[in-house]
Amino acid sequence: MARTVNWGILSTAKIGREKVIPAMQKGEVSRVLGIASRDQASAQQTADALGIPRAYGSYEALLADPEIDAIYNPLPNHLHVPWSIRALEAGKHVLCEKPIALDTREAETLLAARDRTGLVVAEAFMVRYAPWWQRVRALVQDGRLGRVSAIQTAFSYYLDDPTNIRNKPDIGGGGLMDIGCYAIATARYIWGSEPTRVAALIERDPAMGTDRLTSALLHFPEGHLTFTCSTQLVPHQRVTVLGTKARIEVLIPFNAPPDEPVQILIDEGRALGGVEAVTESFGPADQYTLQGDAVSRAILDGTKLEFPLEDAIANMRVIEAVFRAGDKGTWEAP
User: If residue 48 lies in a helix (H) or strand (E), which one and from where to where?
Assistant: First the structure.
């Protein structure tokens, strides 16, 4: 059996060009063999710029290449499920950007396609492969923080361009789908459980209709997640995990630079302001490289993913509950 997975990239989307493709090209068992666009010239230009051997003038041409083992799908949210299913039906494994679908019902059609084809499907939450996040989870599970009953997350950026796909509600734009999903996924990752009910406040852009400011309270068996996400606030991200003995602050929780050390702070609260906090530093690590190789190894070895498609559907259920809670002004169960 070949010990490298040949990946095809479905579109020349920015996240692929700037983050995921260069990272996967550094992988031990991942090889980016081809990239597709709806325009041959665009595909060739990107392939030349990134050193990708093959360029295709259509997504169908990429899926028809027998040497492509798996595809990475960074298309806009409304195209995640349709093209992931087409890839599965073409015999390709799938790594699809988050969120996996527009809603739970659509995600379940992808689950049925996975079960029908027997191929690997993974949602691209790269943070779960990052060593600093794995350390945070281990510290919580080992009791270093005592009983952890609160997680606070903030994630924001400023983007008011109405032509940007993140500002188009009909194709899955808005803050909750784009970045609020990280707050939900990481809390579920840390606690290893599901929220039982959620409450939310949602402010929508009056012109574009997207949720530009969402704040939510999620009740887990272990405690509370509170988060705020916004597409129209100063760029910022931070996660604080609070226990009875100590707290952890993840300084750059989501968009950590691949070529610089990443730090977490562990603070036992002996002095206000965290001046006595202990810093743990992690050497440069590209979480997209780690993600790509993890999925490639699951494809090569036939091993189960730690976070299979069922996990993506569970996250989608929570996202939907937050939307319902914000729209109705009531507590909602996922």
Answer: helix 40-50
pLDDT less than 70: residues of the chain: 1-2
- Report phi then psi at 217, rounded to 5: -120, 120
**Residue of 154, 136, 152 whose CA lies nearest to 144:** 136
97: three-class secondary structure by DSSP: strand
- d(C-alpha 82, C-alpha 172), whole Å: 14
Residue 242 in contact with residue 231, Cβ under 8 Å?
Answer: no
Q: How far apart are CA 295 and CA 304, in angstroms?
A: 10
C-alpha to C-alpha distance for 43 and 40, rounded to whole angstroms: 5
- Percent helix, strand, coil in the chain, to 5, is 40, 30, 35
Output the CA angle 149-153-158, nearest 5 degrees: 170
Rounded (10°) CA dihedral 293, 63, 122, 171: 130
Show Cβ contacts of residue 238 under 8 Å, excluding neighbours closer than 6 positions: 153, 154, 249, 250, 251, 253
Q: Are 212 and 174 in contact (CB under 8 A)?
A: yes
Whether 98 is catalytic is yes
Q: What is the mean pLDDT of the chain?
A: 96
Write down the pLDDT at residue 13. 87
pLDDT of residue 2: 59
From 14, 26, 98, 245, the catalytic residue: 98
What secondary structure letter does DSSP report for 52? Answer: -
Taking each continuous run of H as one helix and of E as one strand, the counts in the chain are 11, 14
